[in-house]
Amino acid sequence: MTVSSQTLLFLTLSVAAALPSAPTTATRLHGQTARLHAQILRSRRAPGGASRNIPRLVRAANLPTANTTTLIRALVPEDQRLASHLLHASVAAGRVPRTDAFSTVGAASRKAGDLDGARAALAALHECGLRANPTDCHALLAALCEAGRTDAAEGLYREMARAGTEVGHKTRAVLLTGLLNSGEGERALAFAHELLGGPYRDLASSPPDVPLVNVILQALFSHGAEAEAKSLLQELKVAGIAPDARTLSLLLSHLVKLKQLPSALEVFNAFLAAGGAPSAAAFNILIDGCARQAQLLNAEALAAQMDGLGVKRDAYTYNALISAAARAGRVNRALAQRRMMRRSGVAADAVTLTLLARALADESRGVEALRLARQAADGAGVKFDARLAAALLYAATRARQRDAKEAAEHARWVWAEMGRR
């Protein structure tokens, strides 16, 4: 039986349409590079898997450096592990791709949670005598610390220096921040000492930038090296390095923690007198310090100063003022701050309601606290937590006798809210 040319054409087009389309990445590759791409994709199903087959394919293809780099970058969005196998196989075969191939594989591995793969990509880069992009190193340093792998992070930091990769203020700040955030206080303190005794021994000739100074100060203040922190601040002053708002906040936090509120206020006023621009965080630290010592008038004076300088109050500010009023036994002043908070467009949170609930409950005004909480939860969608629930249930037990029925109804509402959340 003969088949017409039109029928053959129709069958050919029908079969082609039914076949799965090739990956979009492959259509951008040409010649030998495209063939190797297809072979690598098939290697996943071949005996021995990709890790055994890709080195053989790389040696047989003998692609130029530019083509190898292009193929690695094309493979990353399709299969990050195949790209990693190709990278290392190419290096082993002496066909070293460009630096951006290492960066692409390292970044993809890190984002996929494969920190060992990201670390191996950087190590291979250094072994090839190439210099890494410091930004790639910073991201991996932070990820390693976040994963609790501080030994690997410090190892990478020292490897960067040996390989000639730029190790600057940013690199050191990233590692020191990572150590602090990982709870490695002693290690962070040791690293801060290393920096002050090494690259920053002479601040006049080789000063760190202010963000790094702030992290060093945080390490010193938070781990008992107060004298060294003060000495560093004095050296910075002599070297003409002006602190910023973050530096101020660190110093104020430390003084407030030590209950040295007068000293904190003195430092703050000196900062203002020198032309410094204070942040809301600095004011909040001081207002919170006043609240902890029930110094309502000082707290309100700081809030007024904040307004005068055009620094906007936030929820933390109002919560500290409410706390100061409650600790001073001035519940109506605490309620006035809540009203001012609402007029300013600042949403109440669980802390706000917890503070007010306890303050009102202590004056047997529990139902008032429950009404406020219910209004805020219904209107602003305040998220309940265990502390807020406990405070509201305590308020329900402190209602006046005539309000007992309403208090019980509100208590049931609290239990229902906790059940939903």
Give your account of this protein's structure.
With 421 residues, this protein is mostly helical. The chain has 23 helices and no strands. The relative contact order is 0.04. The model is unreliable at 1-27 (pLDDT under 50).
Structural topology:
Blueprint: H1 5-18, H2 31-43, H3 49-61, H4 65-75, H5 80-92, H6 99-111, H7 115-127, H8 134-146, H9 150-163, H10 169-181, H11 185-197, H12 210-222, H13 226-238, H14 245-257, H15 261-273, H16 280-292, H17 296-308, H18 315-327, H19 331-343, H20 350-361, H21 366-380, H22 386-397, H23 404-420
Helix pairs in contact: 2-3, 3-5, 4-5, 4-6, 5-6, 6-7, 6-8, 7-8, 7-9, 8-9, 8-10, 9-10, 10-11, 10-12, 11-12, 12-13, 12-14, 14-15, 14-16, 15-16, 16-17, 16-18, 17-18, 18-19, 18-20, 19-20, 20-21, 20-22, 21-22, 21-23, 22-23
Compose a concise summary of this entry.
This protein is mostly helical and 421 residues long. The chain has helices at 5-18, 31-43, 49-61, 65-75, 80-92, 99-111, 115-127, 134-146, 150-163, 169-181, 185-197, 210-222, 226-238, 245-257, 261-273, 280-292, 296-308, 315-327, 331-343, 350-361, 366-380, 386-397, 404-420. It is 72% helix and 0% strand.
